[in-house]
Write a structure and sequence with these properties.
Helices cover 23% and strands 28% of the residues. With 257 residues, the protein is an alpha+beta fold.
């Protein structure tokens, strides 16, 4: 994936910042939302002073993304339906394993997308000759979401069957986020493995980097699917781009007035 595209397209995907919920929708008869996990401090100190700028001014804009990705702020008209469903799903059991069910139903940045938060998509194309589009999500809210940023809660979840579809299994792993001075964060990878009627097993991989700096909680997201559960559906370039978007976003928050 080349990070140099300037291909402006209307964002047609509803709820891009609901990557994990979207992946469950794709592989289950009922939508399950597995939120990303809490953050580990990756710097010596985290500045708690909240920027005075409105949250819409804190999110990455045109010319601020690595590789000049195209940025599109996603409006309430696109987000309302998936977020309403997300909130409804948070009120029911989603996973059989209690630890996994807890993190699947935690309040996330997406809960505030229609009120206090802002959501944007960052778009890249596969290459100059391949128009396949890669979409990353950014969500911000100017408050600290303690459970969303509690890494230990997510580390307690390793694997679980879906409570509504026995053919769906969640496998969750937690890793450090890229180190950014003045910020804290961690990366949660949620693999939704689905048994198919023909005996094959597909995968939907949702990666969410949970971040916090200066009183602002961030969620940086990407999702990919594959027909072979044993193969990583996320291209190395997409993995690297996710980290770079996180770094750029956290640095903008830290530098904000």
């Amino acid at each position: 994936m080349r990070l140099c595209t300037r291909t402006p397209r209307r964002v047609a995907i509803a709820g891009l910042a609901l990557a994990t919920a979207a992946s469950l929708t794709a592989c289950s008869s009922e939508s399950d939302d597995a939120s990303a996990d809490p953050g580990q401090t990756t710097s010596a100190a985290v500045d708690e002073s909240t920027p005075q700028a409105p949250v819409n001014d804190l999110i990455l804009g045109e010319g601020e993304t690595p590789g000049s990705g195209v940025v599109r702020v996603i409006g309430p008209d696109v987000l309302r339906e998936p977020i309403d469903k997300l909130i409804a799903d948070q009120g029911r059991q989603l996973m059989e394993n209690p630890a996994c069910d807890k993190v699947s139903r935690l309040e996330t940045v997406s809960n505030f997308a229609l009120t206090e938060g802002v959501t944007a998509a960052v778009l890249y194309k596969q290459s100059e000759t391949d128009e396949t589009q890669h979409q990353f999500g950014i969500g911000l809210v100017k408050k600290k979401l303690d459970e969303f940023l509690d890494r230990s809660l997510y580390e307690a979840c390793t694997t679980s069957k879906s409570a509504s579809n026995p053919e769906v299994e969640l496998v969750m792993t937690v890793a450090d986020a890229p180190a950014v001075e003045g910020a804290e964060g961690f990366r949660v990878t949620s693999d939704f493995l689905v048994n198919q009627p023909d005996g094959s097993r597909t995968i939907s991989r949702a990666i969410v980097i949970h971040g916090f700096a200066r009183g602002v909680t961030s969620s940086i997201e990407y999702m990919a699917t594959g027909n072979d559960a044993a193969a990583d559906p996320v291209l190395p370039a997409a993995n690297a781009a996710l980290d770079k978007i996180y770094e750029a976003q956290m640095n903008k928050i830290i530098a904000a007035k």
